Amino acid sequence: MNKEDLKRQAAARALDEVRGGMKIGLGTGSTAKHFVELLGEKVRAGLDVIGVPTSEVTRADAERCGIRLTTLDEIDRLDLTVDGADEIDTRLELIKGGGGALLREKIVAAASDRMIVIADESKWVDCLGKFPLPVEVIPFGLAATRRAIEQACAKVGASGRLQLREGKDGHAFVTDGGHWIVDAHLGRIPDAPRLAHLLSEIPGVVEHGLFIGIAGTVVLAGTDGIRTVERA
Q1: Active site residue 105
Q2: Of the candidates 179, 23, 203, the residue with the CA atom closest to the CA atom of residue 112
Q3: Which residue of 26, 85, 156, 172 has the fewest CB atoms within a 10 Å radius of its CB?
Q4: Would you say residue 1 has pLDDT above 90?
Q5: How many angstroms separate the CA atoms of 129 and 94, rounded?
Q6: DSSP letters along 37-55, please?
């Protein structure tokens, strides 16, 4: 069984939590795409739900799958968000943003009564940080913002290379919100909640990829089957 099969299994298990009439946040990334496709099959079979996509890529996928969409300007609360993650630790804290949609993903998750994270077992870690931490930044004053990010990381005992993310054209990757992303290659983040707080205080930082206290349930698919972990 390959990794894509595992991702689809996790997505299928999360689909069991969907009921007619729900307002659902639709995540971004390869695992979330499986959920959107499976949800689309249910919609075409008669399930009545409405979704809020977390990226323009997900919007296009959802429209292709026939899922009715809305925005958080039209509704004030979601029943459920289903999204993937780049890393998940044992406290259900996450690193997200490998696909560049961290800002919208966090806005949608925060507007939801519940967040289910779906992933294959390789995303489960003892300590966050091996996956580069995405930090979405304003282009203006980038050098000053980078120095502030470095200082914040140092305060929690994490250090490493900061790299401006590039797009396929070799220029700076631009998010759906028109911002840039600095990827922090830290290796290990000893205190993710504190780093999240410090990064949020930096004026040039729009958002960061640490999702602290947001995920309520994690569905992990592995070679031995599906494992569901609930926040204590």
Answers
A1: yes
A2: 23
A3: 172
A4: no
A5: 10
A6: HHHHHHHHTT---EEEESS
Q: How far apart are CA 36 and CA 52, in angstroms?
A: 11
Which of 141, 128, 119, 78 minimizes the C-alpha distance to 217?
119
125 exposure class (CB count in 10 Å sphere: 0-12, 13-18, 19+): middle
Integer Cα distance of 92 and 162 in angstroms: 25
Two tokens at 64?
Answer: 């292709």
Residues whose CB is less than 8 angstroms from the CB of residue 93 and which lie 6 or more positions away in sequence, other chains included? 128, 192, 193, 210, 211, 212, 213, 215
Q: What is the pLDDT of residue 85?
A: 98
Task: Specify the pLDDT at position 104.
Answer: 98
What are the residues whose beta carbons fall under 8 Å from the beta carbon of 187, sequence distance 6 or more? 129, 130, 158, 160
Q: What would the pLDDT profile of 142-194 be if each residue is shown by its tens digit? A: 999 999 999 999 999 999 999 999 999 999 999 999 999 999 999 999 999 99
| 3-class DSSP assignment, residue 165 | coil
Mean pLDDT of 181-210: 98
Among residues 87, 93, 105, 136, the one annotated as catalytic is 105
Identify the three-state secondary structure at position 146. Answer: helix
Tokens of 28: 């971004």
This prediction has a pTM of 0.96
Length of the chain: 232
pLDDT band at 91 (very low <50, low <70, confident <90, very high): very high
